[in-house]
Amino acid sequence: xxxxxxxxxxxxxxxxxxxxxxxxxxxxxxxxxxxxxxxxxxxxxxxxxxxxxxxxxxxxxxxxxxxxxxxxxxxxxxxxxxxxxxxxxxxxxxx
Length: 95
Known about the structure:
With 95 residues, the protein is mainly alpha-helical. It has helices at residues 15-42, 44-47, 56-94; strands at residues 50-51, 54-55. It has one domain. Helix 1 packs antiparallel against helix 3 (56-94).
């Protein structure tokens, strides 16, 4: 029994855009994460400061997770938007 591809594979015209965007967002996250690491390394007592009922380390850590989720959501939105633009452009060019 021969199995064919289940989907049509076409070139992703938005791949360069998505690559650049992903690298930029990765760098943005690394900078914020590096701040977390530096504070923990250079001034661990600072991370023990209470903010409300939790300390700065917990607050910063949760913030990092939320920041990653926000970046991922923005990345998904922008990439989907670019893919739709490219699909419309290709459709117009092929007519």
